[in-house]
Amino acid sequence: MLLFNRCALLLSFTAVSGITAFAQFGAYATASGAFLGSTGTLSASQTSVEDSGFGAYGATFGAYDTFLSFGPVKLGADARYFFANSSNGSVVSNKVRGGLGGPRLVVKLPFLSLKPYVQAEFGGVLTNYGFQSNEVSKFAYQIQGGVDYTLVPHLDVRAEYGGGQVGGVFRSQSLQEAGLGAVLRF
Fold it and tell me: Which of 62, 110, 137, 181 has its CA 20 to 30 Å from the CA of residue 45?
């Protein structure tokens, strides 16, 4: 009976260890650049704050978790906060920041340390359009794609690009981001 209990305990520990080894949580930070495009939908006689576009540099911080695995394909979720600022000669400068979250799909390439991924994220963005003292909040979405390369166990380097829209159906602006950084996997 004692041998049975020890075997059952060992089997239980092995099963739980296998399940938790699959769970993949990661936190990341990237140096990033953002471009908020102009609407380009108004005539020359009309003006709006959404008509100004700009580029800026900043950072992105986020975390992801993997929930399901189908062989080399992993499904999870990602949440991120980003900000970008640049000087434009005015007192207020160019500013854009926001939070996005959504589903994430990763493919672990066999025998390689590369993990390409794609994610679709939704959330909100704040911007001052480069000349307002206050920031305006808008709905936003982005599709990001990138690749993580494992340097050492639990540490990856990441390169990514994302593009999407800020605003509504009739008055939207493009939002593009590119980043390079590091991922710490737990």
Answer: 137
